[in-house]
Automatic annotation (TrEMBL):
It comes from the Bacteria. PROSITE patterns: KS3_1, KS3_2. The keyword Manganese does not apply. SUPFAM superfamilies: Thiolase-like. Belongs to the thiolase-like superfamily. Beta-ketoacyl-ACP synthases family. Residues 6-409 form the Ketosynthase family 3 (KS3) domain. This is Beta-ketoacyl-[acyl-carrier-protein] synthase family protein. It comes from Streptomyces drozdowiczii. Pfam families: ketoacyl-synt, Ketoacyl-synt_C. Gene3D superfamilies: 3.40.47.10. The keyword Acyltransferase applies.
Amino acid sequence: MVRDTGTATVVTGLGLVTPAGDDERAFWAGLCAGRSTARRCEELAGLPADFACRADRTDLDEAIGGRAGWRMARFAKMALVAARRAVDDAGLRPDRWDGGRVGVVLGVGVGGVSTLVDNVRRFDGGGAQAVSPLLAPMMMPNAAAGEIAIDLGAHGPSLAPATACASGATALATAHDLLATGRCDLVVAGGAESVLTPLVAAAFGQLGALSTRTGDPAAASRPFAPDRDGFVLGEGAGVLVLERGAHAAARGARLRAVLAGTGAATDAHHPTAPDPGGHGARRAVEAALDAAGWAAHEVGHVNAHGTSTPLNDAMEAELIAGLFPHRPPVTAPKGVLGHTLAAAGAIEAAATVLTLEHGVVPPVANLDAPPADWDIDCVTKQPRRLRVDRAVSHSFGFGGHNVALCFERVRPSGR
């Protein structure tokens, strides 16, 4: 074991709904294969970017069971399925825990936008009486956190941080704080997003943020590549169960990783563009390293935000090269998954945990060789086998939000 986990925040469960697969094995195999999941979407036809990375789940209502699914938007359904998977993976029984000591923190950026758009049409055509009475609870971003808490009987703090594309990572950092301060014994935390609608795609397209590589969607998301031209929309959910180390040990839980430190800082530069100097991002990473008690040279792997946009990737590559001159291997899951927005930080945290467990760094999809413009060691073409003890995951969001998470390896053990 790398460190004493008794007083640490530990990861005991993972739950996923992603374009690369839902169960952990399929998700990990998809990342390690390094193949993009992007494809054309019928509902986006006619837009400059008519493709996305969809999570192929048409059975969410069946997976949830009962009648609860009818009151949820798609993002909340994915969040609940992922949360149940994470709790089950952690070996927990909600009917046996002290719900007052269980928190839920679920980051969402937008909420039920497709439901909102549908009801705007209804209102325009039929007036107030045509609007669904469920519109408010379905569109509100905090619906996912609320539905998870209801389903699991979690009566501790229930929060829904919205820091755009850093929301999932912010949720994990917030959960870490709830555990460190003794407010909770365990927290179900992560992020979810589903906005594959023409309105949202058009909005990001008008910003110039999306790739328009319509002739070859599978090659469109290409983090750190010299010819990258924007990100690809994705959807999904990622949920982790975080626990106080002593609580996990008392119930004989399997420890999957230690969340050793978190850091956050703000650019205060521009609503959508990152600070080109990366000062806020660097402060976030340095704060996480300081909280973990690590020197920069002890980091063995970087899971990059890597959106495939010209500005973000240039800023982040310079940050990595400057802060980690020993060149730890870098991956960027958005090449495979697209940009799942608020879910990205949590899904990529799960990927970081799996790298620590398996000793494998997945390749960056659509990147044929390490970038020549920056001295960083991007893993390309094939997964790289490498024991990693300490890893950092980056998440950056519109509004200048920067979050870094430091994860540390533990030796596998039985439950």
